Amino acid sequence: MKKNLFIAFEGIDGSGKSTQAKMLAKRLTDEGHKVHLTFEPTDGTIGTLLRNILKGAVKADERTIAGLFLADRLDHLLNEHNGLVKMLAEGYTVITDRYYFSSYAYHGVHMDLNWVIAANEMCATILRPHINLFIDVPTSVCMERIMSNRASTERYENLENLNNVKAKYNEAFVLKAHEENITHINGNRSEHEVADDIYNMVCKLMLMP
């Protein structure tokens, strides 16, 4: 394997994308790769505010939330200490749990999808993933996982919204298919089966010229 990658994991809540991102990061790290595992919203100042909004501790309009996600993402990219651009330049393979397709899907349910895409175009120009891995799981299964694993649900975690979000993901994938590398992964299998598929796909991508 010769090149470091920027890999974005996408999926609705309960899809298992966070677990898969961690499993891939560990596997690559164990093989000697430099890996930077990260997530959105971040644990920075703006990201922390967003997490409080998602938990219901702070009230905010959907348009405000979309703007905050964009601001958090730009800092995620450009932060002088651990920004994604800096980490990639230093030879790390960067794995992020959510990137701009999450904004397209989650905010696109509540406002014009084309506006959300246009607002995030700067991020795509700065750094586009080598691959967007969408962990595809039926919404009913995701909701069962959420209800069984969490003491409380967050702002977007209900079946109706998850159905709408998944539809927006698919709409955004069609709109951006000509410029994004998007791969759907069947996530309705055992964690290790999913992880093996992802690992093999990433290995092939690392070897491509």
List the helices and strands and how they pair.
Layout (H helix, E strand, L loop, with lengths): L5 E5 L6 H14 L4 E5 L5 H10 L7 H17 L5 H6 L3 E5 L2 H9 L4 H7 L1 H6 L4 E6 L2 H11 L9 H18 L5 E5 L4 H17 L2
Parallel strand pairs: 1-3, 1-4, 2-3, 4-5
Quickly count the helices: 10
Rg computed from alpha carbons, rounded to a whole number of angstroms: 16 Å
Average pLDDT works out at 94
CATH superfamily: P-loop containing nucleotide triphosphate hydrolases
Named CATH topology: Rossmann fold
Helix and strand content put the structural class at alpha/beta
Q: Which class in CATH terms?
A: Alpha Beta
Task: Quickly count the domains.
Answer: 1
Overall geometry comes to globular
What does this structure look like?
The chain is an alpha/beta fold. The protein has one domain (6-35, 90-207): 3-Layer(aba) Sandwich (Rossmann fold), CATH 3.40.50.300. 55% of the residues lie in helices and 12% in strands. Strands 2-3-1-4-5 form a 5-stranded parallel β-sheet. Helix 1 crosses helix 10 (191-207) and helix 5 (100-108) packs across helix 9 (159-176). The radius of gyration is 16 Å and the shape is globular. The N and C termini lie close together (11 Å). The model has no long low-confidence stretch (mean pLDDT 94).
Give a summary of the structure in a few sentences.
The protein is α/β, with parallel strands linked by helices and 209 residues long.
Key structural traits:
209 residues; alpha/beta; Rossmann fold; five-stranded parallel beta sheet; 12% strand; globular
